[in-house]
Amino acid sequence: MPQSPTPIARSSAPETYDPVEVLAYALTAPEQQDLTVADMAGRIRELLAAAGQRRHDACRDLVERLAPLARANEDALADAAYICHAEPDALAEDIYALRAFAADPKGATAVAEMRRYLEEAFVPESERELALDRAIADGQVSFGVLVADRERARRGQRGPTTERAVAEENAAYGSFVTGPQRMRTAELAFNHFRGVYSRRYEDFHAAYWTASSRLHARLLEARRDVQALTRLNSLVELGAPVGEATIGVYEELIEATTACEVEADLAEALNTATVCPGCKLRLGAADHAEAAGAVLKRLSQSIERQLSRLSSVAVQAILERSSDPRVERFLKVVQAAQITTLTEVLDDDLVGYLRRFLLEARISTLLDPILDHVQGGGEDGESATRDALEKLADVLHRAIRGAAQTQSEDEPAP
Ligand SMILES: [Zn+2]
Questions:
Q1: Which one, of 331, 384, 376, 377, lies nearest residue 354 by Cα?
Q2: What's the gap in Å between 217 CA and the centre of ligand 1?
Q3: Cis ω on the peptide bond leading into residue 30 (within 30° of 0)?
Q4: pLDDT in tens, 270-294
Q5: Is the pTM higher than 0.85?
Q6: Whether 271 contacts 116, CB under 8 Å
């Protein structure tokens, strides 16, 4: 995690820096002891070893990030520092973090938690003020400030009040910690951000799920269309199934728009978490309105496509041979392309009946030439007969598979 005590220090950071100087400041400020590079390497190793004993995630990250420093001897210390951090204030802040965990584990843990919150809270671009609040807190909550605060307390000093005292304190920390901030001020900035962020998040969470519930209801209304399309797709004689991917997306959207139920404890959860523990919704996340609109449109288009197949002359001719009044009504619906009525009349019985009828018609077109051949007392028809029988077997297999599929989709396993 990039840690910079102040945005000001970040913007004025040189492209290259003297890591030994930065380490000297960060390890000894505000006293500015004269340390040899070997002393520094030794002290860093001690601090890292102590941090490695702690369970906090921030310590684990520090040990991981500063591993090159732990391995470096005095000749390699500067190079190792560059490998760890390209910016001097980030390097200084990590060293202050090590010092803070060693001297004040409780205070350091609180800073680490605040920094985590500030990093994890997602602030969309549209939330300018909130972004500013975060930038302010981000610039103040740092391990460097905690160390400076403790050092003042240790010496019985108060925070610097005059400009000159501020400048002197800055100089003592090599300007990697800017005064006159104190941990208390930093906490106030953090609490302000967290308060505004939490309220904004709660409002957003409520509005998002209200809108999503409406989408959910709209999608549920289309459930019958999905069933109708699944049934029509099972009529393999009509051709390859249509809109199967759309049905998949539909089911995903039903799931995604199922309301989050964590509402009651949300305010409390947002004290430590930056998203709802139930739905992990990100502040400003787009709802599924667009995807739902698209899926409903594609669903209608898929049904229309199957209807146009059904109303093709050949299929109509086959179905018109039926004397069943239900088929007659169904044909009228198909001809008028009435999707709403279609989804009402198209139940399992009717679809089973249609399947059978279309299949019988297909079988008779395959059998007719053979039967004609037999009727005419033909000879040498063996290979043609075998061909026709293979096709027949294929047609039956497909029909059975199609029927089995609709059964398993419509009925949950017993
Ligand atoms: Zn939620």
A1: 331
A2: 18
A3: yes
A4: 999 999 999 999 999 999 999 999 9
A5: no
A6: no
